[in-house]
Amino acid sequence: MTVTESLARRVEAQLAPDPARVVAKLFLPGEELPLGRSRTGAVIARVLALPEDEVERVAADLVVDFSQRHREYVDMLTDHASMMRLQAQSTPAMSEARLLVLGASFTAEYAVEGAALCNPSAVLHPDQSGLVDGQARVAVSLRGIGEGHISSVGFTSAVVGPGPSWTFESRALPIVAGSSAPAYWKKSHLRAVLTDEGRIDGLARSVLAHLPAVFTGVDLEHALAEERQDLLTMPGGQVTVELLRRLVGSAYAVGFPSDLELSQQVLLPSAPDESNGMEDARFVRFTADDGAVEYRATYTAFDGRKIAPRLLISPDLRTFQAHRLAGPAARNKGMALFPRMVGGRYRSLCRSDGESTSVATSVDGFVWSAPEVIQAPAASWEVLQVGNCGPPIETDRGWLVLTHGVGPMRIYSIGAILLDLEDPTQVIARLDRPFLQPTLAEQNGYVPNVVYSCGGLIHDGLLWLPYGIGDSRIGVVWASVDELLDEMTPTRAGA
What we know:
By secondary structure, the chain is α+β, with helices and mostly antiparallel strands. It has helices at about 40-50, 50-65, 75-85, 95-105, 185-195, 200-210, 215-225, 230, 235-250, 480-485; strands spanning about 10, 20-25, 105-110, 115-125, 135-145, 150-160, 165-170, 180, 185, 215, 250-255, 265, 280-285, 295-300, 305-315, 320-325, 335, 345-350, 355-360, 370-375, 385-390, 395, 400-405, 410-420, 425-430, 450, 455-460, 460-470, 475-480, 490. The chain contains ten helices and 30 strands. A hairpin with a 4-residue loop joins β15 and β16.
């Protein structure tokens, strides 16, 4: 593979998938597939028939073998056992050991990185303690891919500096999925999503009229209970009701215990539209006009048939709100948020046509306007498509956007463009050659010939970019910001 001399300098630090990073999930035998036949009752009966001495031995082995692999393991098994007993018509009183065996019979481990680890994004960590001059701590989000090609969002941290130095901090175990709860909706937001789904019918309009401006699933059920029967029984009425419930239920909040390290946290799919994965989170440290700082990330939800752009909002990378995005720009993969408002509007990069980089605006950060194309495929190494490699990075010369291009043999390369600070629909410079391409040593992987990132950052004049290698492991490169910007060719718009 021929590779031009790179502006990016690779460092030795790499991150490989760790199959020991597992979570324990409720497992219902026979229900793995949508049309499967449940074997729950038979399994419960077999557990109840086991001799007590065997039950005690199995329970003791489970505690020894798995307590260190999972936080509050015994409590989790007891909880799973309670859920299964509710499904049974009647069950006798059980010993503590039998409850543990019953719970474990409906529990399975899932290795979040069992297949691959890729597509990182980097932001300044909320914890900058314990560092020396010239260092900064970086929070890195990771796409872990496990059994069934299901993606989740994991995290790690690294220390960058002084100078061209990057060190990944150790990743702690066990990992924890966090606890989720329903989140709020804005009525204007739901109306926009229903419009995207093509379901603004008479029933939907009536329900929206009865909802408060900000509401939860409880408010939706109250509105449905008070709805007129003639609307509910009209053709398509139940389809609208089911869609309303599914959409409103897709907004959720996730929290993690305060004593966990960032690397122990993992966001697993928790909504129907992301049941088959949460892909390529692009995190940004967002600063509001009043100076308030929070973390935001766009990601791609996949339900096995279609995708849906979604948004994470977090004040501290410990509690998260997850919401569906809407509008003409929220139609494809690869949305990436600007780190502040520009011209009084939220801005994002997107690729709503599947092959070009565009810029969209939003009043509230949830509903996105029709996008404006700013970059179409042109160079040989991007003839199939272009898109972003993470949120724009502000420099004194403009918004630096790292891009990805897909060329012959589906080789992914990383490039760069520069946008006007005041009008980011204007490309004022571009890099005429790739910033980063896969080397021969990076050619093989879960998906061959890919280098890809979901975001980098600047520290002390150096651009740092963690990137996925073959969708299987993580590497890191750096470059002088001034050298990169000097290498870029001004465009006619910026001349």
